[in-house]
Amino acid sequence: MEVKKKTSSSNTLDFFSKEMIITKKSLNENQLKLAYQKRLISDLDYKHKEWSKSINSKF
């Protein structure tokens, strides 16, 4: 993640808080990573449930 010091330029495309400024590109990349991680967790949860069903049906 890119972190920049607050600049005095009023013509920037940065999102900022009092602590730091985050570029729009960095924000978008982080949102894509989060969506991907959520999908992986969801897939893992589904696979675990299917595995559990197959184990329970054998006994």
Quick overview:
The chain has 59 residues and is mostly helical. It has one helix at 24-58, and strands at 15-16, 21-22.
Give an account of the 3D structure.
This protein starts with 14 loop residues before the first strand and ends with a helix. The chain has about 60 residues and is mainly α. A two-stranded antiparallel sheet has the order 1-2. The protein is rod-shaped, with a radius of gyration of 21 Å. The protein has one helix spanning about 25-59; strands at about 15, 20. The longest helix has about 35 residues, at about 25-59.
Give the ordered list of helices and strands.
EEH
Total number of helices: 1
Largest sheet: 2 strands, antiparallel
Helix content: 55-70%
Distance from N terminus to C terminus (CA atoms, Å) equals 49 Å
Principal-axis shape equals rod-shaped
Mean pLDDT: 78
| Structural class by helix and strand composition | mainly alpha
Detail the poorly predicted runs: none
Number of strands: 2
Q: How much strand? A: 5-15%
How is this fold's topology laid out?
Layout: E1 15-16, E2 21-22, H1 24-58
Antiparallel strand pairs: 1-2
Key attributes of the depicted protein:
59 residues, mainly alpha, two-stranded antiparallel sheet, 1 helix, 2 strands, rod-shaped
